[in-house]
């Protein structure tokens, strides 16, 4: 009898795609642990869900019932009529496990476990972990987490998290999968500041059920996604993760990954040279390279890489053309590009002739091009010069360096230059106005904008990695 | 017995490290060239192979440049010192232009992988080996002998003859396929060194080691 039951459960178990379709565009969300008390997880989840404009049905679940955040609360999940797309668990662990058990008897697509206190708590969490695994064995729904920060999808106004780090993100081409919620927050906020749009963010937590590889497969294959940014500490199904990444690279998408955590090498006796030579970190770098995963050494470098890749352009080679409104920044950019293995070649004669119409005699029309401050007086000049450099057959990537922005036309001219070419263009904008309205024309187009030559060089390196062959 | 059945029988017998003589027998059966055994003339290598002593030279169990007669006497003496071993007398390879290491192991994160790089004493150089997922397709194996710092050695440094890179790539691909198919039974295979001759002249596995996977009951603990 028990066996029969198990089979029936397995049959009605949601596929990853069914569960995630429900997760990213939910009609009904139940928040277990919804509370009126500030500081409680469930209160924060409910408040953020509402304040970010989610338009579906939100059902607070709280044993005392009543009204919470202006919404009618139910006392338990069983009181909810009909299917529930997403159940969020934001209570202490004991209550969360009881609710999870209830979900096995209800029509739930996916559960997001914000609650902590499982395997990550070591011995103290062992009993909870065992109970969690027992429930999940026969569960018809799928689980994100537990011990995660939640899920965000700007296009659905969906903010299923207790963290305000994900506020005000714009929809766009980047998906983030992170085993650390805090790092997801850091990377999302930085991308948001640069105007890079987000398709979805999942903090995958302990990955008891849905893993980084499941999420990569689903989010990477979403037509809205151009780049997937991953922060991983332990890849549970690493082989599948890289096989999925390989397919995505072949389909013209990019996977950028930060692999955190120290190597566990040395815990076992090494009987051969192979064991010593193929330490964890070397294997990760080699296998990532083989399968087209761009490895970033830390989270901000990963954001630099994603910023460069989000526009969806690939360079044909490693020749960089640089224009700058100031000599010094042009020189620094050139040094950094060259030391990263790029060429900064002399521009074609035709390009130099075109540039000399705009550049005064005390500037320079070779490479880097020093436009001098004169261009600030005529806002369209900088755009024309960028077009000329991007047009040069000897240039694969163009970089424009600007300081402050004299007026709106200046930025629009840069945006037009971006539209005039299919080559990758990076903007280094050192002034303070990057995040205000003046940059909107660039943000709309996902033009990569950096605040310093060093960060732009970090983006360049990611562009270079996309030219490698993935077998 | 198929190569897999041989592995299974070793596993059943509780072997952990399979010594060179047995490892080479198996490699030969999957198409990897090994030195000629018990030659009647020429210079020989004399070894005593024993599962418990994989690092033979630490125990004086390798002697080079002997005549066939000297080699027989040497192995008799070694066998007296280390009972239970298998004696091995082979033709000494002296036509190689490069010594390479080829290894396969199961990585905790990605499963079977294959590694290739400068072998012999050069294994002590750090970060010279190329690593790929196993099984490595022929074109992947080809990329392993044409990238990284080792590639320049194989191409011939300062006018030296280029090594047989095609033969080496074939060996890498072959052993990675065998390893990946049997990774449940083997945790590591290592050939170190492979003596690679000049282009078109082939190569030979001068030393080899197979580490078997622990039995299920040992893995539990």
From TrEMBL, chain B:
One of its GO terms (molecular function) is ATP binding. Coiled coil: none annotated. Keywords: Acyltransferase, ATP-binding, Ligase, Nucleotide-binding, Plasmid, Transferase. The keyword Protein transport does not apply. SUPFAM superfamilies: Glutathione synthetase ATP-binding domain-like. Pfam families: ATP-grasp_5. Its EC number is 2.3.1.-. PANTHER family: 3-HYDROXYPROPIONATE--COA LIGASE [ADP-FORMING], ACETATE--COA LIGASE [ADP-FORMING]. This is Protein lysine acetyltransferase Pka. The gene is pka_2.
């Amino acid at each position: 009898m028990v066996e029969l039951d198990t089979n029936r459960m397995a049959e009605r178990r949601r596929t990853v795609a069914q569960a995630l379709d429900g997760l990213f565009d939910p009609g009904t969300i139940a928040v277990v642990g919804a509370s009126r008390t500030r500081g409680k997880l469930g209160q924060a989840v409910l408040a953020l869900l509402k304040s970010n404009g989610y338009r579906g049905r939100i059902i607070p679940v709280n044993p005392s019932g009543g009204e919470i955040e202006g919404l009618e609360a139910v006392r338990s999940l069983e009181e909810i009529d009909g299917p529930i797309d997403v159940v969020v668990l934001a209570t202490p662990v004991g209550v969360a496990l009881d609710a999870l058990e209830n979900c096995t008897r209800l029509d739930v697509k996916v559960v997001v476990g914000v609650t902590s206190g499982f395997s990550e708590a070591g011995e103290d969490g062992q009993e909870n972990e065992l109970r969690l695994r027992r429930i999940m064995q026969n569960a018809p729904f799928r689980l994100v987490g537990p011990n995660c920060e939640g899920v965000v999808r700007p296009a659905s106004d969906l903010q299923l998290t207790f963290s305000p780090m994900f506020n005000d993100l714009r929809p766009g081409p980047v998906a983030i999968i992170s085993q650390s919620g805090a790092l997801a927050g850091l990377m999302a906020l930085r991308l948001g500041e640069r105007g890079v749009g987000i398709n979805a963010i999942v903090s995958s937590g302990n990955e008891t059920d849905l893993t980084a590889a499941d999420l990569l497969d689903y989010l990477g294959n979403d037509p809205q996604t151009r780049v997937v940014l991953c922060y991983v500490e332990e890849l549970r199904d690493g082989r599948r993760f890289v096989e999925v990444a390989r397919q995505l690279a072949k389909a013209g998408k990019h996977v950028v990954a930060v692999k955190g955590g120290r190597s566990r090498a040395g815990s076992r006796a090494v009987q051969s040279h192979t064991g010593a030579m193929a330490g964890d970190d070397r294997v990760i770098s080699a296998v990532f390279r083989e399968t087209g995963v761009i490895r970033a050494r830390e989270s901000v470098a990963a954001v630099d890489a994603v910023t460069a890749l989000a526009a969806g352009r690939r360079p044909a080679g490693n020749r960089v053309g640089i224009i700058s409104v100031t000599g010094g920044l042009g020189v620094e950019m050139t040094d950094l590009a060259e030391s990263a293995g790029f060429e900064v070649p002399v521009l074609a004669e035709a390009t130099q002739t075109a540039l000399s119409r705009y550049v005064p005699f005390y500037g320079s029309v070779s490479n880097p091009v020093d436009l001098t401050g004169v261009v600030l007086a005529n806002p369209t000049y900088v755009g024309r010069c960028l077009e000329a450099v991007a047009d040069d057959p000897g240039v694969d990537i163009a970089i424009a360096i600007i300081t402050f922005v004299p007026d709106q036309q200046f930025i629009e001219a840069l945006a037009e230059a971006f539209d005039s070419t299919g080559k990758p263009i990076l903007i280094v904008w050192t002034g303070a106005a990057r995040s205000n309205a003046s940059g909107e024309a660039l943000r709309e187009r996902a033009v990569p904008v950096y605040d310093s030559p060093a960060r732009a060089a970090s983006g360049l390196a990611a562009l270079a990695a996309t030219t490698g062959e993935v077998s | 017995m198929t190569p897999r059945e041989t592995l299974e029988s070793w596993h059943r017998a509780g072997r952990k490290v399979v010594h060179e003589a047995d490892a080479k027998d198996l490699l030969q059966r999957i198409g990897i060239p090994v030195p000629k055994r018990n030659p009647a003339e020429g210079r020989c290598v004399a070894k005593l192979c024993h599962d418990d002593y994989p690092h033979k030279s630490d125990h004086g169990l390798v002697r080079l440049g002997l005549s066939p007669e000297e080699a027989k006497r040497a192995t008799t003496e070694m066998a007296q010192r280390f009972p239970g071993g298998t004696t091995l007398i082979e033709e000494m390879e002296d036509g190689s232009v490069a010594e390479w290491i080829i290894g396969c192991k199961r990585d905790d994160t990605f499963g079977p992988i294959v590694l290739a790089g400068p072998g012999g004493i050069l294994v002590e150089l750090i970060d010279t080996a190329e690593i790929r997922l196993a099984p490595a397709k022929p074109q992947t194996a080809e990329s392993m002998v044409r990238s990284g710092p080792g590639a320049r050695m194989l191409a011939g440094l300062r006018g030296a003859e280029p090594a047989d890179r095609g033969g080496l790539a074939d060996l890498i691909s072959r052993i990675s396929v065998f390893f990946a198919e049997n990774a449940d039974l083997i945790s590591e295979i290592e050939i170190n060194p492979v003596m690679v001759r000049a282009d078109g002249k082939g190569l030979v596995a001068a030393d080899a080691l197979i580490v078997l996977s622990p039995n299920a009951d040992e893995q539990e603990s």
